[in-house]
Amino acid sequence: MLVPMTKARILGPRSIAESVLGKLQRLGLVELADARTAHALRGLDCAGTWAARHEELAAVLAQTKRLLDALSGEPRSAGATHPPGRPLDLPALQAELASLSLIFEEVDARLGALRDERLVLPTYLEPLRLLLPLVPVLADLDVKELDLIGLATVAIVLNTDDERLVETLRLELAEKLGTRYELASTRIEQGAMGCLVVFPVDSTDAVRTILGGSAVRSVALPEPFEGLALNATVEAMQRRLVEVPRDIRDAEAERRALLAPHADRLAATHAAIRSELDLLSAMGSLGATQRTFVAECWIPRPRLEQLRRELARQFGTAVLVEDTRSSPYDPQAPVLMRNAGLSRHFESLVRFLELPRAGSVDPTLLMAMLLPLMFGAMVGDIGYGAILLVLAIFARRKLAPRAAPAPEVASLIWVLLLGATWSILFGVLYGEVFGDLGTRVLGDWALWRERPSARALEPLLLFAVAIGAAHVVLGLGLGAWQAIRFREHRVLLDKLGAILALAGLFGLAGWTVGGLPAGAFMPSVASIGLGLVVVMSLHGALGIVTGALDLLGRIGNILSYLRIAAVGLASAHLANVANELGSVGPIWLGLFVATFFHGLNLALAAFSPMIQALRLQYVEFFGAFFVGGGRAFTPFGHDTLVKEQEWEPA
Predict the structure, then answer these.
(1) Is residue 379 a contact partner of residue 416, using CB atoms and an 8 Å limit?
(2) pTM of the shown model
């Protein structure tokens, strides 16, 4: 159900406006609205002071958030909290955070450098490793030795396997250096050539000019590896790649050890800053006269008296709370869904489609009753239902707590659990245990009739159509009742006209098959005609076409429920095929084949009926009455970690 909302108006002296807002924030009962536009009032004259305070708080909030993010995933106890209503001592807090951040920044910078090193080193190592076979002699030389003989070495990787480019480079080096160089090259991998150039140190600028003109990019090695021979560089980089992950773990442990003693304090500070920032933002929504302030807020009607008592307890008669007696169908009102028992687990499935409009019908309870029933009618097997029930219980215990960020997952687990129960009940009606396995053992024991049999086809189809007719007419009835509440007369006539036309069609169908007496013919035709006239009259000149199309659409919606019978029959036939194949050949092969096909059928039974049942709810049923566009009720202070009822002064 949707909790009825009302708009309350709070008035009091300007001097206590901030205290009243702080109390509202700690109570977490109301959603603030802008009182200035509602009553053409000016706001409180403190914008400059609030802006400066807001800027300071935002800077400290960013600092604490960064420190808390570094502790993400670490368990935190319920440590000290900041007393509600007491302003933060920003200078002391800033000094404390600056001292902690100074050490944190040093460790964090070291950790960042290590992570960068882990990413960058492989990009240097791979081309150098590929060049090792190219220089079996030079790889053993040290740069210091090269300096003694006045030589320098340059390693190059060309992204081509065309040896003509190497020859071009050789000619350019010969033109500039004559015979005072050595160039060795080889193909190091598909599409890449490795080159090693040895030349006098005094020709370094000339070599750089040649390589620059050849569009060869020079990349310097990291500082710790400069001055090493090629093979020594490769070995040092490989050792470093092994050491870096250990160094990262050590740095992360050092950072956690630094921040862990401050975790509770940081969390409390973060919550207190957010609370004060919310309070400063809320101050801008107040209206004011020369001596009083005015606040407007949405509140669940059952909580209005509690709000009055709480404000009177702290402020006495200085604060007045008025009920504006706004319409419960006000489209501006926020929406709060409250369902008891099992139905509350289906709220997220309604929200998944859209939040209902304030004052409209909340379909959660009906969805909780009918969605599992339709699922069970499609599966309809005791064996499959029992396995699905066990899986649902296991999933609820093991997976549901992890699905808190996605409540739709937990809701689907409940659909599976209740649907499996209905599957067992329908399995008793159909007389099915893993298809016709129960019949093979016990004979014909179905309370109703087994689905795959020829005599069951017509009753099964009629059963599915009957469910569809009842479901669609129920939706139209809810739409008519909702239209009365919203005073939408055209919508009311549209729903009533559709109900009359469908009732006439049902009567005509009953008369045709001999289920109703001959006297039912004329009332049925009259009902169809009257319903069509009502619906057509709402659409003007095009009503003749649109009215008939609307009726055909309603009939199509009802016939869409034949999928209940179709999906169920497909599952029953596949189970029977599995049993038939299992009885052919050796026992071990039959068991393997039967188990495989029953497992496949079970997977389909868990998935396909769920999708089809949800589709029937969202499209055929909700389409007859559901009005979306609701806005969720977000109480002022609802996400603040410090609540008044949790705070006890020391």
Answers:
(1) no
(2) 0.70
